[in-house]
Amino acid sequence: MTDTYMRVSMLNRDYEKTIDTLSKDGQVSRETENYLEKIRDIKSIDDFLGDYEIYSYAMKAFGLEDMIYAKAYMRKVLEEGISSSKSFANQLTDQRFKEFATVFNFASHGDSTTSFEKTQQGVVDKYLEQTLETREGQENTGVQLALYFQKKAATITSPMEFLGDKALAEVARTIAGIPEEAAGADIDWLSETISDRIDIDKMSDPDYVEELVQRFSILYDLNHDTTSTAAPNVLISSGNSIVGMDEDLLMSLQGLQLGGI
């Protein structure tokens, strides 16, 4: 198996070509064409949640595939929108739900929500990126994590944003040299340790992010046997969600903050 950093570097050099090739894959192409053909006809949250193909495509695009079954949970995310700081999406520690509600902002835009570019080609672009990450993760989870971190790095403004996302938390702990056994340690200690070893103020600096990707990749390969089959891929898709719960329990987590994890 190619080591993590070498594979990430190869993908970065030919990223646009790789994405273009992926977009022409039979299944990916069919699902994308179907999405673009039908999304303009979606005029409400009921329409959106009622069309499984469209809804699941969008959820996969945001790395929320393991939450597709939780329609009541996602309805609450969409109905409350993002305008209020007290809305459901804004209270969740996993920022992917806020991102989802920002793009599919039915609460503010109503039946014109799907007329915007961000809900059409913007979602397709996210879907292709997510699909690439997922497929790479089937061979080497470290590559998937590194790609995901690269994509999200510029949006990270605090150590808590690392810790609020299981995939980013894995990256941060690896870079900071925090052992896996300490993943459940005191949240304040984890936050302080990450702050000491990662300069959050430089997360929008591509050169610094590249240094972090290299450091993560090397340490990941040291910590894992990347010459054998990669570990099961659960980090990206599950995020901060608790997979396997019924919807009533998920709904009860609407006030969950990091200190309660």
From TrEMBL:
<protein>
    <recommendedName>
        <fullName>Flagellar biosynthesis protein FlgF</fullName>
    </recommendedName>
</protein>
<dbReference type="InterPro" id="IPR023157">
    <property type="entry name" value="AGR-C-984p-like_sf"/>
</dbReference>
<dbReference type="InterPro" id="IPR010626">
    <property type="entry name" value="DUF1217"/>
</dbReference>
<dbReference type="Pfam" id="PF06748">
    <property type="entry name" value="DUF1217"/>
</dbReference>
